[in-house]
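HUMAN: Forgive my ignorance: could you write out one protein's sequence and backbone structure tokens?

ASSISTANT:
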Amino acid sequence: QVQLVESGGGLVQAGGSLRLSCAASGRSFSSYVMGWFRQAPEKDREFVAAISRNGGSTFYADSVKGRFTISRDNAKNTVSLQMNSLKPEDTAIYFCATRSGIVRTTTRYDYWGQGTQVTVSS
């Protein structure tokens, strides 16, 4: 069992930055792929970014490429999402998720956090 707790959401103006963090409990954090997803009102949950077990490979949705950066600290059992140049369309609840096996850009992840709200005003 893995528990995930996100933090760092909030309200920011367009063009601003936020850094989301996700703390994972349980053993073998470095054995899991980590991902960030988001869900806007009345929309499906969508992939944002993912990172491999050792942090050597990262993957991004086209909509955030060049603006968002995912990173992980296996010693601290945390994964972060640095979000720059935020746009109103980035407004959503952001979820941290983890899975064993290979990186996937679908929602086929095993464990999910409760989410943190990000609101970008124009």
